[in-house]
Write a structure and sequence with these properties.
flat
Length: about 725
């Protein structure tokens, strides 16, 4: 058997044109992309859709930025004089100073000051706006504080200065105004912190205010104690807590508030009693069974229905029997019982209306009694309120004095050691108008990149898992067979019509295959060979006919034998009679000359299959097949046998074993390499000379530009006689 290196080349192999492995890989990638172009486009489109969806689903976030100048030198105001420190600093010290200040900006302590200043620790609004988890335990102040500070520090961005002292501080949140407010608060609290740490917090001026503050505190405590003592002795209950007094009018005691609430309830009870009394009087004035409440009662309705039924039955019984009849007496008894039950149910309904009236009347009386009692207590309390109000005004005055002194004391604490800050705000943060994220263009680029990567991976995995023979290289790489020819897919639908045109791409391809067959072995064209395929309709019969006609046109005497006894088709393709043929020769002792018919081309003879035998496998296994091949080889230059497909049948290996050589036909993109390898294993079991493979029905438009150039329809055309003359 000839190796692939001894075979002539009939297709544009990459190695024959000096193509590198990189170029081959690139071309194979292009082929895979063309084959999976819709999958790739779908994944890229999916990536873009996901990018758009991510942009639309993401919450817009706004970034506000403020810039501050941090100088290592600072002016100090001591007493009434002005002193400026202008000591020269080492550049390394300046860098360390700036890095220290940046760490202060990032510190937890500064974040806590900002949170307290903006009131972020009191409610869940900030955490909810930032999309963070709110602690389950509302009383867990430490967990809430940690969550708020974590959000402040995580969304704070500080850009170190480059060759300058200007630091940019940014904060990002879903609320533009919140971002500006927080980043400005960071700048303000940072300046306040540096001032507090830079100067001494003690001051002589605070001592005097501190003494006055202590005296005011004692007076306030004394007045509050006197007020509470009088209220306890007088039995007055008044809340001075603003939160408790929120729903109580000013100068109103708890007793008065209770009187107002009970009076409202008494008015409502009176209205309910009047309505209930009206319902009862209307019910009492109406005959029992004429009342609407009675008639709408479900029990009364069922009893009335029962009564009507019994009256009907009793009337029918009286028409049929005498009054003393047991049936009449039974019905009269049941009717009497039903009347009593109906009367009882109706009275119960009327009793429920009266019970409602009595309950409403009692509720009204009870509330009226409470109103009278509270009215007396309120009038007595007003007499005792005169002294209470005087003491309350005194306590309020002392509290106001204490609050003012406390505020003044706080101001003195802040201004006791006044110094100008070494931090200057250059640009105050403004609420941004446009969100900083999500970025539609960036998300689209990420989606496009992700789609391309997903498409590449999907195509790679699909190409690796796809073991179909799609391109010519697959014949050698996946099957290990030399490729003798590639036949393109018929454009006209019928391969016979396209073969009839000698200028068609299919005819040219079979001519190339014929040329390769002339050098298929070191001795040249085998005198006898079979043509088979793994499965049916792969083009083996068309290939057999094309090779037979092509070799006959070269001047060789060729005989084409239809050895497919199960589904013969050569006689149909060539329009011949099939009265006797291969099957008749194998079942008789007649010579082959009796079954030979002239073919459509000079030099070509044909032996059709003949009538289908009962067992084609048994018939092909007889020694007569070898006698047929021997006899034909003596009469013709070339003997070609068209055999059945290999898979599922025992015919093909039997015929191939007799011819000793075989051409394997593979349809492009149809049969998997596993099936083809299984078919080849069956053939190799009989040890024939496998000449090579011929790929049929190849569509170059799905395999890349290089294939389209060689197997396209316009690669080379013969000129018409008129065009040639020109």
């Amino acid at each position: 058997m000839a190796t692939s290196s001894n075979l002539p080349v009939v297709i544009p192999q990459s190695s024959q044109f000096g193509e590198t492995s990189v170029g081959r890989l690139f071309r194979q990638s292009i082929v895979a992309l063309r084959r999976n172009v819709w999958l790739a486009l779908g994944l890229v489109a999916l990536g873009l859709v996901l990018g758009v969806a991510a942009t639309l689903l993401q919450t817009p976030r706004y970034t506000a930025t403020t810039s501050m100048e941090i100088d290592e030198r600072a002016q100090q105001i001591l007493g009434e004089g002005l002193d400026t420190e202008t000591a020269d600093s080492d550049p390394w010290d300046i860098d360390r100073f700036l890095n220290t200040q940046l760490d202060v900006l990032r510190s937890r302590a500064l974040a806590k000051q900002v949170a307290e200043e903006l009131g972020l620790l009191e409610d869940d609004t900030f955490l909810t706006a930032m999309g963070a988890a709110v602690p389950d335990d509302a009383a867990d102040e430490e967990a809430r504080e940690n969550a708020v500070l974590a959000q402040l520090r995580e969304n704070l961005l500080i850009e170190p200065p480059e060759n300058s002292r200007v630091v940019r501080v940014s904060f990002t949140s879903p609320d533009a105004a919140l971002s500006a407010r927080i980043v400005n608060s960071f700048a303000a609290e940072y300046i306040r912190s540096t001032l507090q740490n830079r100067f001494d917090s003690s001051s002589y001026a605070r001592e005097f205010v501190s003494d006055q503050l202590e005296e005011a505190r004692v007076r306030l405590e004394t007045s509050e104690r006197e007020l509470n003592a009088f209220a306890r002795a007088a039995g007055l209950i008044r809340s001075r807590d603003p939160q408790v007094r929120e729903n109580i009018p000013a100068n109103t005691s708890i007793t008065a508030a209770s009187l107002q609430q009970v009076n409202q309830a008494a008015n409502a009870a009176r209205a309910e009693r009047i309505a209930a009394q009206g319902r009862w009087e209307a019910e009492r004035a109406t005959p029992l069974l004429s009342s609407q409440r009675v008639q709408t009662n479900s029990t009364v309705q069922s009893l009335m229905t029962r009564k009507a039924t019994l009256e009907t039955e009793l009337q029918a019984a009286r028409e049929r029997y005498l009054d003393g009849h047991p049936t009449v007496e039974r019905l009269q008894g049941e009717l009497a019982i039903t009347d009593r039950q109906l009367s009882t149910a109706a009275n119960n309904v009327r009793a429920s209306v009266r019970a409602e009236f009595i309950a409403a009347q009692r509720a009204e009386q009870a509330l009226a009694s409470q109103v009278r009692e509270l009215r007396g207590e309120t009038l007595a309390e007003q007499d005792r309120s005169v002294r209470y109000n005087t003491l309350a005004r005194e306590a309020d005055t002392n509290r106001k004095i204490y609050d003012e002194l406390l505020e003044r004391y706080s101001q003195l604490n802040a201004s006791s050691g006044v110094a100008s800050s070494n931090v200057t705000i250059i640009d105050t943060a403004m609420a941004p108008r446009m969100p900083s994220s999500p970025n539609m263009l960036a998300n689209l680029l990420v989606g496009l990149l992700g789609g391309l990567v997903a498409a590449a991976l999907a195509i790679f995995v699909r190409d690796q898992l796809d073991d179909a023979i799609r391109v010519p290289e697959d014949v050698e790489t996946k099957l290990g067979l030399p490729l003798l020819g590639v036949v393109p897919k018929a454009l006209r639908g019928d391969a016979g019509d396209e073969l009839a045109d000698s200028n068609s791409a299919m005819a040219e391809s079979y001519m190339a295959l014929r040329g390769a067959m002339l050098y298929a072995t070191p001795e040249g064209l085998p005198p006898a060979f079979s043509v088979t395929s793994a499965e049916e309709t792969e083009g083996k019969t068309t290939t057999s006919m094309a090779l037979a006609q092509g070799l006959a046109r070269m001047g060789k005497s060729v005989v084409l034998v239809d050895a497919d006894l199960r589904r013969p088709s050569i006689h149909k393709r060539l329009g011949m009679a099939n009265k006797a043929g291969t099957a008749d020769y194998l079942m008789s002792d007649r010579g082959a000359a009796e079954f030979i018919q002239p073919g459509p081309v000079d030099g070509l003879s044909v032996i059709t299959a003949g009538p289908s035998p009962v067992s084609a496998a048994d018939l092909l296994s007889t020694p007569r097949l070898q006698d047929l091949i021997t006899e034909l080889r003596a009469r013709f230059d070339v003997v070609i046998l068209d055999t059945p497909p290999v898979l599922g049948l025992a015919d093909a290996p039997t015929v191939v074993a007799q011819t000793g050589a075989v051409l394997f036909v593979v349809e492009a993109g149809r049969v998997r390499s596993g099936q083809l390898k299984s078919a080849l294993r069956r053939l190799r079991f009989v040890r024939p000379a496998i000449l090579g493979a011929a790929m049929t029905k190849f569509d170059p438009s799905l395999a890349g530009n290089s294939y389209s150039a060689y197997y396209g329809r316009d690669y080379y055309r013969y000129d018409s006689p008129d065009e040639a003359a020109v």
